[in-house]
Amino acid sequence: MKNAIVALVAAGIALTGTAADAQQPVKIKFSHVVAEATPKGQGALKFKQLAEERLPGRVVVEVYPNSQLFGDAKEMEALLLGDVQIIAPSLSKFDKFTKKLQVFDLPFLFDDVEAIDRFQRSPIGQDLLKSLASKGYTGLAYWHNGMKELSANKPLALPADAKGLKFRIQASNVLEEQFKALGANPQKMAFAEVYQALQTGVVDGQENTWSNIYSQKFHEVQKYIAETNHGVIDYMAVANTKFWSGLPADMRAVLEQCMAEATKFGNDLAASINAADKKRIVDSGRSQIIALTKAQLAEWRKAMTPVYKKFEGEIGKDVIDAALKANTTS
Ligand code: LMR
Question: Phi and psi dihedrals of 190, rounded to 5?
């Protein structure tokens, strides 16, 4: 009798266990390197909110901002290993995996974020989004941040002013050549290390968007920010391919819709977040913003654009031409 009760209880536990297992929600860890108040930070939180609202009890999204879980190179590895399921690195950080995405790093290629958006929506842009799936990164969407400015502790009005200075760059060969073309010394470095490197003088300057400069407090350790708008920081939200393709089809469809809506949400906010952060930097009085004249900007363009030729072979002339074409609306 006693044995029978034990057996029944054990069966009960086993049954409960099975039922509980069947109800275990799918956990999506979404890791990124920026602050929550940035376009990417806001997009990630929106994705979490929508996914958990629409798939209650079936999906849990944990967002880890600020390199809390993994920094730049580590998050790319962690995604492949399945330690996180979604990341959204800047397009510059895919260098190791595809050469074509380097197009986004070419200086002065895009006139503005609208042009970038047109290129990303074009057939070539969409092919690039899907091009990494076989390498383990399923491209879900492009996310905007915005145009890059150039900061340093000396005013950078003309390219010659950057000569001999050390600049932190993202892990991108195009960006490396861009600074070499100025006679400057580029240093690849993870985003999480930049503030300290600027503060201690390991590097003299860096390039980034207003929202990244403000949220990381770079303006507190850089006396000048030249408004060059010479390049772009945008992202690709990617999922681990095995994880994403292994999801139940109905769940994946809902998550794709959540991703599309989170993308629109973040992209619609990007320009206003960057504008507000620029104003906060001005108001702080910590860093002086240098507005450049058309003639000065033309000098920067002239100094930087020779790098196109160096990367034309790797990127493909067709891709560069399609990107340039996106500058015109017709
Ligand atoms: C950087 O490393 O400067 C940026 O790519 C960080 C980011 O994710 O915006």
Answer: -65, 150
Query: Looking at residue 10, what is its pLDDT?
Result: 44
Q: Which two tokens stand for residue 19?
A: 């039922």
Q: What percent of the chain has pLDDT over 70?
A: 93
DSSP string, 64-113: E-TTSS--HHHHHHHHHHTS-SEE--BGGGGTTT-SGGGGGGSTT--SSH
Using 50 as the pLDDT threshold, list the residues of the chain that sit under it.
Answer: 1-21
DSSP string over 186-252: EEE--GGGHHHHHHHTSSSEEEE-HHHHHHTTGGGS-SEEE----SEEEEEEEEEHHHHHHS-HHHH
> Quick one: which H or E segment has residue 167?
strand 166-169
Q: Residue type for 213, please?
A: I
Q: Specify the amino acid at residue 35.
A: A
Could you give all domains of the chain from N- to C-terminal order, each with its CATH number? 2-325 (3.40.190.170)
Q: Which residues line ligand 1 (CB under 6 A)?
A: 33-34, 90, 145, 170, 191, 208, 212, 233
Residue 181 — φ and ψ, nearest 5°?
Answer: -65, -20
CA 263 to chain centre: 12
Phi-psi region for residue 57, left (φ > 0), alpha (ψ -120 to 50) or beta? left
CB 210 within 8 A of CB 277: yes
Contacts of 278 (CB under 8 A, 6+ apart): 210, 214, 289
Q: Which of 66, 85, 16 is nearest to 247 (CA)?
A: 85
Residue 22 has a pLDDT of 58
C-alpha 8 to ligand 1 mean position (Å)? 57
Among residues 238, 41, 252, the alpha carbon closest in space to that of 142 is found at 238
Q: Output the CA 161–ligand 1 centroid distance in Å.
A: 24
Q: Is-contact 312 305, C-beta < 8 A?
A: no
- Amino acid at position 267, single letter: N
